[in-house]
Amino acid sequence: MSVHASLAHDAAALHVTGQARYIDDIPVPAACLHLAFGLSTIARGRIAAMDLAAVRAAPDVEAVLTAADFDQIPDCSPSLHDEPLLSDGQVHFLGQPLFLVIAHNHLAARAAARLAKITYHEDTPILTIEEALAADARFEDGPRIYSKGDPDRAITNAEHVIEGRLEIGGQEHFYLEGQVAMVAPQDDGEMVVYSSTQHPTEVQHKVADALGLAMHDVRVETRRMGGAFGGKESQGNWLAIACAVAAARTGRPAKMRYDRDDDMVITGKRHDFRIDYKVGFDAEGRIEGIEFWHFCRCGWSQDLSLPVADRAMLHSDNAYLLPHARITSHRLKTNTQSATAFRGFGGPQGMVGIERVLDHIAHVLDRDPLEVRALNYYAEMSSAEAQPAGMPGAEHHRVTDFHADLTSQGAAGAAVPEDDPVPEQPSNVQTTPYHMPVEDFVLHSLTSKLAMNADYTRRRAAIRTWNAGNPLLKKGIALTPVKFGISFTLTHLNQAGALVHVYQDGSIRMNHGGTEMGQGLFQKVAQVAAQSFGVGLDRVKITATDTGKVPNTSATAASSGSDLNGMAVKAACDEICDRIAVFLAEEHQADPSDVRFKDGQVHVGGASYAFDEVIARAYLGRISLSATGYYKTPKISWDRIKGTGRPFYYFAYGAACTEVVIDTLTGENRILRTDILHDCGTSINPALDIGQIEGAYVQGAGWLTMEELVWDERGALKTHAPSTYKIPACSDRPDIFNVALWDGHNREETIYRSKAVGEPPFMLGISTFLAISDAVAACGSAYPALDAPATPERILAAVERMRGK
Amino acid sequence: MVQVSFLLNGDPVSVEDAPPTRTLLDWLRESRGLTGTKEGCNEGDCGACTVMVTDREGQAQALNACILLLPQLEGRAVRTVEGISGPDGTLHPVQKAMIELHGSQCGFCTPGFVVSMAVAHRDGATDFDDRLAGNLCRCTGYAPIVRAATAASSAPVPDWMTSDVAALARRADIGNAAAGDDVSTGGTQDAAATESVVRPDSSDALAVWYAAHPDATLVAGATDVGLWVTKQFRDLGPIAFLNQVADLRGIKVERDEIRVGAMTTLTEFGRFIADHHPDLAEMVRRYGSVQVRNAATLGGNIANGSPIGDSPPALIALDARLHLRHGDNRRSLKLEDFFLAYGKQDRAPGEFVEAVSFPSQPDALRCYKLSKRFDQDISAVCGCFNITVEDGVVSRARIAFGGMAGIPKRAAAVETALTAQPWTEETVARAQPAFAQDFAPMSDMRASAAYRLMTAQNLLMRYFHDMTGTPTRVLEVTP
């Protein structure tokens, strides 16, 4: 069996020897030009004068471009056409590209970009959530509101009511490979683009748009990225477009990579949020009504902020039944980097909100937070109860703007289903605040098992004893669940294509629309292909993502990579197998459905042949050995404006138990032990899935602890390099780190009944944050009300508050 | 332009035409097509460019190629990730383990990890958290990498990992490149002197040349100067590369004094000081990363004058003196007097740090480094305490801080408040407010002024508890 096997990453041997080639490693074509942006040094205002004489005169500079050099300034936005490649005179954030240096080498371009003399008419920037609210600076006309039941009445009538506020910081992706692109112009004006992007089709579309070409004139190739995490879903547009523009104007190849500081200053990060809440609950801690207000700092342009803020709303329930709920979401426009996609895509922020509420309720009632969580969980359904939801699959798209960015998650004018997407539900099924039935809930049994494996109850008691004997250091523990919705919320993106060739020698070449950023997608999909043909992985060649092979792809995002592309590749493989089966069955007077591809053999009517022998015969028999495959996710349909329907095909689940220690004199803190149980359905590759879980947990913990973005009062990002922005280092992982997969399968018909794994485990890191909160709670009787990230400084401030100082 | 000769993956190379500030990373990638070594940050913080450098003494070290300037390699041997596999392509045990135990995901940090792991493996080291603190990974959460390092640790060291030592000994032609401009003509002041690049081999030669080129940049480990090049495009003027100045290196222990040469690396100093002041060694363990400590020198950390360098507060707390030289003139001063104001030190043009010395003393030194991340993070606050208690009474207190002022600075008012008082929690509590007299810290991206002041006070309380045996360190807690 190829699937379900713990095979190494397909490029592991290339990684460890330094042979794996990233875009900056591709030998540059002769006469290649190198680019760098000149950046604004104010956050808001207008350019008064731009003196670029010194830039143009600098050594090795070929040309310098400004907005004045374009009839129409190319747009880099994945949504609202609000991101001019070079400033049109307005400055929207500190770090905005103002001019483009085209030079003979990378260092010359960077050095020259610093020589500009620019004066501005400076305006007071809008930097914070509060400033944006005061100025009513926002995207969309007003807040989005999703609601269910009558939260006002439920809260009023509840025995207990609490209110609170939580600030949640953003996060820099810190992909180790910075943004990079290279464009090689072809003889007929075609542009071949090498881009470190999660979304080659987006780059293709934007480059074509920038140059006035059709999409067939642009081919984008992406073999691998050195990490992405959402940061390369839209942010790579800028470099690819800049290179294409330079290539078109000079006829020479052009390459651009951001220096790390430029990368951090220019590109978007995770959205920071403020979440206010008001919740009514009964004496046991059961939530009766709840209201959330999300304040989401989107930065200067819209980018993907609307679906990010939507997903935050869609995860405001996490694992809990909220009988009466209202979520109000403000998408605020500020003069900072444009916040963008980042693993979880708003889900983590929404989830931190509700987990904070559960923690707060438990504290008020002096109960074990895990008990209060379980009390509020959605019901787990037996398979008999769980009727397949009969969702209307009708999709009537009303596309009017043919230049629209249709394949972007930020696409404007997303199609709205004409049918009422609120499904009819069996009365025994519980629903989310957006009225989607929760039919696959497993967290009661999953968290029970994790609590047992982690010895949660005993350790929680032991920690209390330990804390009593330690005046300066305090331990804390928390066990938190994750329920994460799987599918692009922009429904039409849930489609994928593949192209599979079988050559006459029996070797297979496979291509699909997904991109490889380290997650092991290519290997998982190769396993699917090998499984389909019943051959070993050695026969399957994995190839670079290429818009010339598979068109109209969606970004590799929303954890969808293997769900969508695995199915598309399987469809292509099945198509070829079916043709061969018909051919062989005819020869053998057998039924095609009885032909089996297994263990390198093809079995038909009692006879067995080697796979390559069958392929050679099929070729001679004039059977087509190449096929495309296509897949679209079934059952999904919803209305994002009303907040009703089924945005998700299914949910992925998991839970983590984390123990920490803090120093009450300094706020220093450390993870001591983490136990994780996570649901990958029937895993296609358990080793790769565990790798995703371990990495996501540490990244999630980093987001909520040491990773802090700091802007000064002028809007300058002060944490713009690894010297000032600290992602977890080796010793920050838990001393004891137990990760196991939940033994289950996906009730929906996904690829080999697996579940998506890219994003869901990121939110296991929330257990770290709440374990720290638990440790702080040991310092007094008030509720710690810790904000994120829980840096030593915030922890110490919380400890001081607890002590009434 | 400067001439440099060294071994690259076992083969001799001679670079004739590189500017003296050409980094090894750029040269490897652009001039040699060796693209396995990656650029992640270009400032020595991520370790994606880690290479192994062996010297004639047989020492092999992990260094960051992005801030290693080519002239620093003269006479040494470089092994990149391409040279960590055997000449016939045989995988190194750490490479094999990384594949088998899923240690790579996106793979971009992997070459740097592999080199750091291979150097640790060569040394027989298993303190992987420290050995890998200078390599950042954003994908794996490190667990599978440490599993791989552990699994490989019992395998024998492949012969190619130690062959550079013998190869260097065999190759007399390596390391004999002309030492730049003739150092002995240091007195000339002609126009060409502004482009002067020298590699002096003694402090006497350096003294003559530097006195004649007082506007020159001295490059010791280049862990800071490297960033002037890669991030600021600064013109360094005349440059002296100091790594061959042997007599500035090393530590002398005399009866009542310890004297540390300016070119002693942080790695060497940390190893040495563990026997005398173990808590200072623990702080040095968290200073930069292995790659940075292997390059950075104690003299550089002092002469640089940074308000957030970690060694000055510790050395001031030890009552250290700084030894300076200008031409033939030598002088020494108390280390705290060297730091005049932010960016300004008591050092004349052409004058350089020869050594730092401090009295041999019973160990009462504790060094508390506060930062958002434990490893490889610049201190928000670095507090160093050295308090002598005799018969229950404080007889002497030396307390110095980094991160609390524009310079590393003593907490004189606190010291006064403690001295001649009984060593009790009450005395500590009474002395804590004096920190506000000593320091008016600033707010920045690392911490607020309020946090800095509060923790400075709290660290005095920590010292009290630390000395009386109450657990104070989260790093020592087990689950």
Label this structure with key terms.
heterodimer; A: alpha+beta; eight-stranded mixed β-sheet; 23% strand; B: alpha+beta; 18 helices; 30% helix; globular
Helix-strand blueprint:
The complex is a heterodimer of chains A (about 800) and B (about 475).
Chain A: H1 12-17, E1 33-39, E2 45-51, H2 53-57, E3 61-65, E4 90-91, E5 97-103, H3 106-113, E6 117-122, H4 129-135, E7 144-148, H5 151-157, E8 160-168, E9 180-185, E10 191-195, H6 200-211, E11 218-222, H7 237-250, E12 254-257, H8 260-266, E13 272-281, E14 287-299, H9 305-314, E15 325-333, H10 347-365, H11 369-376, H12 443-453, H13 456-468, E16 473-486, E17 495-502, E18 508-512, H14 521-533, E19 540-542, E20 545-546, H15 561-588, E21 596-598, E22 601-604, E23 607-610, H16 611-620, E24 626-632, E25 637-639, E26 644-646, E27 650-663, E28 669-678, H17 686-704, E29 736-741, H18 766-777, H19 792-802
Parallel strand pairs in A: 1-12, 10-11, 14-15, 18-19, 28-29
Antiparallel strand pairs in A: 1-5, 2-4, 2-6, 3-5, 7-15, 8-13, 9-10, 9-12, 11-20, 13-14, 16-27, 17-18, 17-24, 21-22, 22-23, 25-26, 27-28
Helix pairs in contact in A: 6-7, 9-10, 10-11, 14-15, 18-19
Chain B: E1 2-8, E2 11-18, H1 24-31, E3 50-54, E4 60-64, E5 77-79, H2 93-100, H3 110-123, H4 128-131, H5 143-152, H6 163-170, E6 197-198, H7 203-212, E7 217-219, H8 225-230, E8 239-241, E9 251-253, E10 257-261, H9 266-273, H10 278-285, H11 290-295, H12 298-303, H13 311-317, E11 321-326, E12 329-334, H14 335-338, E13 339-341, E14 344-345, E15 352-359, E16 365-370, E17 381-390, E18 393-402, E19 409-410, H15 412-418, H16 425-431, H17 435-438, H18 449-468
Parallel strand pairs in B: 1-5, 6-8, 7-8
Antiparallel strand pairs in B: 1-2, 3-4, 3-5, 9-10, 10-15, 11-12, 11-15, 13-14, 16-17, 17-18, 18-19
Helix pairs in contact in B: 2-3, 2-5, 9-10, 15-16, 16-18
